[in-house]
Amino acid sequence: MRRTKILATVGPSTGSSEGLGGLLRAGVDGLRLNLAHGTSEQHRATLRAMHAASRQAGREVAIVADVPGPKIRIGPLVGEEVILAVDQTWTLDGEAAPGDARRVRLEVPSLKGVAKVDDPLLLGDGSVELRVTAVRPTSFDARVLSGGRVRSQTGAYLPRARTNTAAFSAEDRRMAEVALAEGIDYLSLSFVRDSVDLVAARRWLDKQPEGAEVGLIAKIERAEALKSIDGILKDSDGIMVARGDLGIEVPLERLALEQKDLVARANGAGRFVIVATQVLLSMVESPRPTRAEATDVANAVLDGADAVMLSEETAIGRYPNEAVGWLDRIMRATEPSFDPRRTRDLIRGFPPDPATLPERSVAAAAVALAEGVRASAIVTPTHSGRTARLIAALRPGCPVVALARRSAVRRKLALIRGVDARPSPTQGKIMDLRHQAIDLARTSGLAKLGPIVLTLGFPVDGRPTNLVTLVDPSEVAEGPTPR
User: At the N or C end, where does the chain have fewer CB atoms within 10 A?
Assistant: First the structure.
């Protein structure tokens, strides 16, 4: 079983039923829709196609919807892209007409005060750079310093921009309503500044139909978010290290260090963490990744990331299934070298949440017992998924099999490293759960690998996890399971 999970972005290359089926067969654990691109009707159709493809494949994958947040973007372009040459002048304005090599719309609430002469302007990942040369009330000009290809709706980064926009705007909420109506498991919030942004989003979600079931992912893209990361972790279900915009906000030479620190802090807080952006970027056009990209993926696995996300590679790339396949190969080759001791030390050093302290202690006892007896798996019945997440955060050497009655819980657990979420027919008495563990051992071949550690709540129904027991393989050899 591969422990590290794969999240793939769906786009023109993969939005059809055939494309989605290919991603699922290749092994993705989650599907992401970027709501910054397309119309509401297109978003509805894509989300419905995601659910239909998952049902057809018999897979329960996490569905993630990503709202654009207050990112400044250029508008649409004739032909979907232009090539900007060094020293040419590009005008940015508020006109609705599609742009070209002379002008383009800048999507901000107001152009007033956004830029001043000599301000830098970076496009996309920062490889295309311009400098503002003239400013007017409703537009400004910029000269190209470093040229290249620019696509429609590309992000525009003005480091000195004078804007004051909310991280979860009314437009974000409108998009989120569309996604919630079609069914999502996580809402990914862009350009989070601090925990205040997350609390506001959580309050809004809790008021929406089905919103209380939806988890929150905080995308870390701003330098100011790094200063508030502990609060962000506390008020989110997980974080995404979005290296594209973060790599513009912080010095490029420090980006790898910031990534490692964010993964470590998320591990310590018991929150899942996704590493994203340009993971296998060369595979947009090439059937094989570069050696540097393979090394980047391996380092994310060794650092303790729960998941790695593909963006352009699966959204617009020529080889989406191959990109997933290469991620799978690199992860499987790297995972045996992962050392969990550093992650566990981080968790011990992180201030515990008093509400989860008893369950954290039970999780630690389950992992210690599993490693002491060389268990084949830790089986944990779970109502909300919390116990499975707490156990998985300690990175045990064996799989964590989460038995959950609700499909929504199983889908959310699909992004948690090392967790294999399965349906549970019952969460009744202790002997019933032991029999479930025995049946699991028989059907999956785990009985041949060692005993099973079983966690449960006593007397089970409605109680937090408070008991750890051992299911010995000899029980499996006794014949039919008693009923």
Answer: C
